[in-house]
Amino acid sequence: MKIYGIDVSHHQGTINWEKTASELQRVNGGNSPGFAILRVGYSARHGKGGLYTDGQFLNNVAGCEKHGVPMGVYWYCYDTTAEAARITAQQVIKMLTGHKFGYPIYFDVEYGTHDGTASGYKYNSTANRANNTAIIQAALEELEKAGYYAAVYCSRDFFLNYTNLGQLANFDKWEAAYTSSDTSAVQNGLWQYSSSNALGIAGFGKSLDCDVSYKDYPAIMRKNGLNGYESQEAPADQETEEGQEQQQTPTIGPMSRGDFDRVVNQAAALGKAPMEYTVRFEAMTTATASKLQATAKELNVKYKSDWA
What we know:
Elements: E1 3-8, H1 17-27, E2 35-43, E3 51-53, H2 57-67, E4 71-76, H3 82-96, E5 105-108, H4 129-145, E6 150-155, H5 156-162, E7 172-176, E8 190-194, E9 209-213, H6 217-224, H7 257-269, H8 286-299
Parallel strand pairs: 1-2, 2-4, 4-5, 5-6, 6-7, 7-8
Antiparallel strand pairs: 1-9, 2-3, 8-9
């Protein structure tokens, strides 16, 4: 399975999510709405914990929800202790409340120092490997306690050289590696393979992180009741004699084209597709209507017309 998506922050400015939703569906061959991983913010540079919110986070959440784009979240690490990471994670959780996220909540740990100075805590130091790992574990454990699917983002090199990777085996990985192909060096669920808009998403120029997911994360969240979703386990009175959950076949409409696109995108995010389409037109002359009638007859589909 490969599902393509993007990750964004305030650096992309105000995003046209209607257009971006259409583009994500396009790059996924029309079979999936793709996904977007949204930055919720970054931890305080003093290293003692606390979240500074990304200025576009709430706008991006609203845009994704409106246009049916499955979301994940990440925040950038400046924490220097496990306790600081827990404090920041708790504040991240508050920002997530009231929304549903089809993709994991990621803790982003990268090269550099926590305060930008040469004397600051240096993440890409082998001497700090154990503490880096403890920081990551602490943040992700807080997320899991609150019912979120916790995962970690690092570069391939960082995972291999600046964390004790075996101690993170129980957490999914979002791996950054701008190489021509993925490798098995890090077992990842998400691969960030480009920072230059390799997917060609319109509206972003050449500056956009692109990712591929190897898992159906939205199905995992729904099934297990994670990330704001309620568990899909059926009540006892809604199961068949064989113990299988009863199925439903929803019908929605009539609706506008804009509403139609939104419903279809949401259905795709849920792994479902419409079984059939019915098209209703505005009033037209008999001569014009007869042309559509001829096409319907040619396609062997039902045609009906009423006088306006």
